[in-house]
Amino acid sequence: MNIGDRIVAWSKDEEIKKEGASGGLVTSLLTAALKGELVDEVIALQKKSEFEGVPIRTSDVDEVIKCSGSLHAAPINLTKFAVRFFEEHPDGTLALPAKPCDARGIIEQAKRKKIDLEKTYLIGLNCGGTMDPITTMKMLEKMYEIDPNEVIEEEIERGKLIFKTKKEEKAISIDELEEAGYGRRENCRYCEINIPVMTDLACGNWGAGKNETFVEIFTEKGLKLMNNAIELGLIETAPATEKGIKIREKTNGVMEKVAKKWHEKIFVPIEDRLERLHYYMDVMEDCIDCEACKYVCPVCACDESKCIDFYDPMDSHKISIYHLVRLLHLSDSCIGCGQCTDVCPAEIPLTTLHRRMADRIQTKYDYIPGMDMKIPPSFEVE
Amino acid sequence: MEEEWTPKITLFCCNWCSYAGSDDAGVGRKQQPPSTRTIRVMCSGRTDPGFVLTALMEGSDAVLFTGCHIGDCHYISGNYKAKKRFEMLKEILDELGLEDERLQLQWISASEGSEFAEYIRKVTEEIKAIGPSPLRQEWMK
């Protein structure tokens, strides 16, 4: 196996294969990394129900096996958990599954010296978008007419979202769901990065057969992860078929096109200056100063937060300085992961606001955050 | 008789060039409108974007960055940092809907007293033409 290889792989462990999605490769890679002492700890998402996943940090192989299975309705970003790990163990090594936004957050943090990327194994996961759990439950009741508690499995296949219960199986196309206001989270709809090319290896079911995972290896570390798992006898591999590679590229192309369309639809420029100002003033007015957006933000990296330095809840400014400083701070590094909108108790569309600013600055400086460790943040001055 | 409205302009001056330049304007008795509130900083690179945002929110009609000419910084690279911050802030404030004139950057050296006075006159006229900042509270005079 070499860097740049495209292969299909699956787990040899029957238990993992049964529980995990697409042959349970990612779970096997994580367990192999622990067993082969490649890493000290692993971060994984433990499935509590179809709508709830809890991130855990563990060195226990059995705990990791419990985490197998895919979850589309648990939009969690693991970056801050990785930051916490390196705060506690500066010399430790870590492996974690990462969708594109996790990986981009981790790379942005690594640029700001909060994460040691050399010691982090990123197992990339192809991602076509995640869903908000509450919206999904509502969608199940209204569109699918299924009781959310009865769902045992969900899957995305050929642009259709499929939910399975013990009795039945129902599929509705994602376009139809999103027209009705359900489906993926807003930021996922316009996200153009579906294959995590910035990680060590990208795994996904696009272009793979049933119960196998398509893998593309990008780095030396990715190669090490695969070889380690093969040596331990936990996975089996085969070269990817020409057809599979084409399907994967085509799927990616289609997703990118859809994302561009959504981007145009959501980011309608407000031409009039005063109208724009009032738009920002009106949406930010609802803020209740809980600072939750700051805590979850994967790219927020101040030791002592600048955004609260200049801010006092007693201020009666027309726009809160807390948000202004955050808008400025994240304008070069915002990756559009949607965490801020998710946690906001006042339901401020923060991600949209941040993207409005960030789009301008990131286009101006031709900087896409979280893609390449070698490119310094555009805020940096030599 | 109603008094003519004069804008309130926050002016950040670097200790080594612009502040001396503003001093020079005074010593040389160059006429300039009393619209500026000068804040001396040790270097234009010390002007945190937070200062600018606070100034605007607290009722400034405009904020001016001034510092040593590029290449003349007392601390070698402070004004490069100021320039970058200015560019970023400019984009943000433009997106927020503030007029272009409300944030400006000008390099003024210690000997440019007359240029300094001329610049303040020009900016004051510009701000007078566009009126008070929409971010200013109604109760602020």
Automatic annotation (TrEMBL), chain A:
Q: Does the keyword Iron-sulfur apply?
A: yes
Q: Tell me if Cell cycle is a UniProt keyword of this record.
A: no
Q: What keywords are assigned to this protein? A: Iron, Iron-sulfur, Metal-binding, Oxidoreductase
| Classification via InterPro entries | 4Fe4S_Fe-S-bd (IPR017896), 4Fe4S_Fe_S_CS (IPR017900), Co_F420_Hydgase/DH_bsu_N (IPR007516), FRHB/FDHB/HCAR-like (IPR045220), FrhB_FdhB_C (IPR007525)
Q: Which GO terms describe its molecular function?
A: iron-sulfur cluster binding; metal ion binding; oxidoreductase activity, acting on CH or CH2 groups, with an iron-sulfur protein as acceptor
The record places domain 4Fe-4S ferredoxin-type at 277-307, 325-354
> Can you tell which superkingdom this protein's organism belongs to?
Archaea
Q: Which Pfam families match?
A: Fer4_8, FrhB_FdhB_C, FrhB_FdhB_N
SUPFAM superfamilies, A to Z:
alpha-helical ferredoxin
Cofactor(s) listed:
FAD
Q: What is this protein called?
A: Formate dehydrogenase
Record the organism. Answer: Candidatus Ethanoperedens thermophilum
UniProtKB/TrEMBL annotation, chain B:
| Top-rank taxon, per record | Archaea
Instruction: Output the Gene Ontology terms for molecular function.
Output: iron-sulfur cluster binding; metal ion binding; oxidoreductase activity
Keyword Protein biosynthesis appears in the UniProt entry = no
The record's annotation in InterPro entries points to: MvhD/FlpD
Q: Would I find Secreted among this entry's keywords?
A: no
- Keywords noted in UniProt: Iron, Iron-sulfur, Metal-binding, Oxidoreductase
- All residue ranges annotated as the F420-non-reducing hydrogenase iron-sulfur subunit D domain in the record: 9-131
Pfam families from the entry?
FlpD
Q: What is this protein called?
A: Hydrogenase iron-sulfur subunit
Where does this protein come from, organism-wise? Candidatus Ethanoperedens thermophilum
